[in-house]
Task: inverse folding
């Protein structure tokens, strides 16, 4: 009898959980599920915005066209560079500034409040502001760099094939690292002060405490942030589009910009959907490969 009551209670709890989660599940299905299925479906069909009569199954033809596009490898390389440099820069700045603002310094509350400003500024506003500041004719940054003797003459940072991608990456790091700082600060609060005091009493220097106390305590936070921002950065469209539109000469064009060009410039929904599916596949492979590396590293460590 008691077992039956317990099972009935567990069943009721599960039903209640599904009822409460129902609106969120329905929302996610309509927001992500249905569009995702539609993109996958379109990737195997000929579909155009300008020719509604063009509709038919073409198999892997769209994928072949995308992979054979002369700009695909260039844009894939740009996406990898943009993502790795952005995430690494955000990680480095986020951890450094987060630890600095966790110290008992005068005015740290004010600094913590101000550090979030770049992240809450709308991307359009931030992108246009940096475009104006980096302008070679009237930009304040070029003027200051020349006055300080850092450069001989104004540089078109966003209009040079050698500097465009790196400049946009720097702007993206500037805007996004405050999110890391706030998350790192939250993670630092969970590390017991006793660990720092005990390690200091044992004679551990600041570097030892960082690598053996702080970093292990932030491991889960940092891992989560890295995975999240790899996805967010690799699929980012607006920042690059606002600042360079993928130029000059495709030097800062990434795969999301290429998807936009296929869909909104060439009106080829089939190719844009195929490239979207390729991006999803690459990210899935990446996240499947990382745990495998960790497992191999663990086995090697255990064997040693």
Result:
């Amino acid at each position: 009898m008691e077992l039956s009551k317990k099972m009935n209670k567990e069943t009721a709890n599960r039903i209640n959980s599904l009822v409460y989660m129902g609106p969120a599940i329905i929302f996610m299905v309509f927001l992500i599920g249905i569009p995702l299925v539609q993109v996958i479906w379109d990737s195997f069909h000929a579909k155009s915005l300008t020719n509604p009569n063009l509709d038919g199954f073409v198999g892997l033809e769209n994928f072949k066209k995308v992979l054979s596009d002369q700009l695909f490898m260039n844009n894939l390389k740009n996406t990898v560079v943009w993502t790795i440099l952005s995430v690494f820069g955000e990680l480095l700045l986020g951890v450094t500034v987060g630890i600095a603002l966790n110290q008992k310094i005068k005015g740290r509350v004010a600094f913590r409040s101000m550090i979030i400003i770049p992240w809450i500024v709308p991307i359009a506003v931030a992108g246009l502001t940096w475009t104006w500041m980096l302008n070679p004719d009237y930009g304040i940054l070029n003027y200051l760099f020349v006055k300080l003797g850092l450069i001989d003459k104004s540089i078109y940072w966003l209009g040079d094939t050698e500097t465009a991608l790196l400049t946009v990456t720097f702007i993206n790091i500037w805007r996004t690292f405050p999110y890391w700082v706030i998350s790192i600060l939250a993670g630092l609060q969970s590390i017991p002060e006793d660990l720092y005091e005990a390690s200091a009493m044992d004679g551990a220097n600041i570097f030892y405490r960082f690598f053996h106390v702080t970093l292990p305590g932030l491991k889960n936070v940092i891992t989560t942030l890295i995975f999240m921002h790899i996805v967010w950065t690799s699929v980012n469209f607006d920042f690059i589009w606002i600042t360079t539109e993928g130029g000059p000469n495709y030097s800062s064009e990434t795969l999301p910009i290429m998807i936009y060009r296929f869909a909104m410039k060439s009106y080829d929904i089939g190719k844009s959907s195929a490239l979207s599916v390729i991006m999803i596949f690459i990210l899935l492979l990446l996240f499947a490969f990382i745990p495998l590396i960790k497992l191999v590293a663990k086995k090697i460590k255990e064997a040693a």
